[in-house]
Amino acid sequence: MHTKFQLAEPWWLLAIVALPIVAWFRGRRSVAAMILPNAGAWRRPSVIGGTKLSTTLIFLSAAATILALARPQSVATERHSKSRGYDIILAVDLSRSMEAEDYFVDRKRSNRLQAVKPVLSAFINRRENDRIGLIAFAGRAYTAAPLTFDHKWLGRQTERLQIGLIEDGTAIGDSLAVATSRLLEGAKERAGEREGAFIVLLTDGENTAGIMEPMEGAKLAKDAGIRVYTIAAGKNGYVPFPRRNERGERIGTSQEFLRVDTETLMKIAKETDGEFFRAESSDTIDQAFEKIDETSTIEFEVQQYSTITELFSYPLYAAGLLAALAVFSSRNKMREALA
After folding, report:
1. What residues does the VWFA domain cover (predicted)?
2. Does residue 280 lie within any of the structural domains?
3. E strand or H helix at 305, and its extent?
4. Distance of alpha carbon 273 from its chain centroid, rounded?
5. Number of domains within the chain
6. 282-295 vs 112-126: helix axis angle to the nearest 10?
7. What is the dihedral of CA 174, 90, 88, 199, to 10 degrees?
8. Shared-domain flag, residues 190 and 325
9. pLDDT for 165-223, tens place per residue?
């Protein structure tokens, strides 16, 4: 809930400008005088000179009255959104081939995983109404993060992804099976509260490991009503690849031949009514995720309620109190003068 203060008729405040002008003219007005012989013998204190306090109070009372006429209000605004988000699993390849340095980020050569991470983070941040989970796969597929609305935590988990965390290989079929399983579990938790579910599969190679074939995993997703968006990362052919010694320390760069199985990824997308994207650069990876974001975004209804509370009574009470004090002060001074 958001609360703000406003004046319903602020133009009344212009009248406050007139108060100092009135005070200035009142101070300059002339008082008639009569010259009498021996006046000092019967002189009494002037009542007029002792009304400064009451005059000040009267002016403050007038200012408070003007503020009341301007109708100060407090406006409490409450927003209610009726939305149903998606459950999304990001399945990211962590096989050795993701170390290939055929991408450029900020004009610097980068490996495929380094180029993918900021794009993943940007996608996660844009999907604020969705639960998102993370599957990491190489020779096997693991749940790196369950479905969650905590996108900051998920971003940190994404940043921790590293090549070599899982035994080498590319288990595309297994990754689809694990992702589908996690989404089916999520469907039970949010029955009737989600718009749907889909998988984003990002890989740069061929299926070389795992128990399940890629199309078997795709069939599991299809039977569960889950679309799969496939992104083929990297270039076919010879690409720069880091050379490492037995201790894993980099000692140079070599050229290795790598192949992306775009045909299988296209079949997976077609089988599940998803879409295939070819991403040979960091820009095209970003464009692929933006396209997915546009395709699978839901519009939701937002209702806004405003409660207006009139506050004019407070300055009006203050004006009355100040006026009463002015009258009391004036009468008290008059009694002292006549005593």
Report:
1. 87-292
2. yes
3. strand 301-310
4. 31
5. 2
6. 30
7. -50
8. no
9. 888 899 999 999 999 999 998 876 655 555 688 999 999 878 999 999 999 999 999 99
